[in-house]
Amino acid sequence: MLLFKKINDLQNHLDRQRADGKTIGFAPTMGALHAGHISLVDKCNAENDLSVVSIFVNPTQFNEASDLDKYPRTEESDILKLTQAKCAVLFMPDINEVYPKSTENTETFDFGGLVKVMEGAQRPGHFEGVVQVVKRLLEIVRPTRLYMGQKDYQQFAIIQEMLRQMQSKIQIVRCPIVREPDGLAMSSRNVRLPADHRKRAVLLSQILEKAEKQAKQKTPAEIETEALKRMENEPDFRPEYFKIVDARTLQPVADFTGENGVAACVACWVGEVRLIDNKVFD
Ligand code: AMP
User: Is the CB of 133 under 6 A from ligand 1?
Assistant: First the structure.
């Protein structure tokens, strides 16, 4: 694996690869890598000549300074995991490479209702930061395909819409959620859960499973109320939302008849750690 910290060096290498007609699959990450991230690398390798992963903890997408400070950083083991996964190129820029002038964001897209709900409502400025960094990384890497996880369901929808508005030729590929054996969605934040909370955090995926089963008998509103109550009754759990939404527009649904299908999305604090998960209903 080649490791680049400077844009110039990375681009010189990737320009040569492109000149040889090679396709490039790109997976942006914030490090603290787990098997979910590695599944993106595997897909990049399977569908492209070359895989590029970036590790950059983007300060502009953190709406709370303490969350940024506590974000796990595990550079050495990340490099080892990516090498084992046969990642071809790792890009690990520092902040001045990514934002040479300032971190101020002048780009504006109109994402309509997509950014107004769920994570967008709970974390002011978060998606502006995500859009800013992904757009910048795409300008730097210029991949054939972009690989992002369903784990961040709303993020995927917003970046897909960004590419559409930019009339970009980059194909975005949605990768399924990789889970721990008990069902908990893998997340870099899981390492911050104490053992008891870690054990009980599986409740989130169980609630999503149950919600899908209930869809035959109950309304979305009834399922949401029951799910919120279940989390509120669990010690140390503080739900922020449990929403059943149109799988494409992410707006609330009154029933299950819409042609886009539905997804259930949850955000919940478990002790000091904020977890998100989702399920697209069959
Ligand atoms: P992050 O480092 O958390 O910004 O995540 C980088 C990418 O990995 C994003 O596209 C995430 O959606 C994806 N990702 C994170 N967790 C998982 C998971 N459990 N399964 C699949 N993809 C994931």
Answer: no
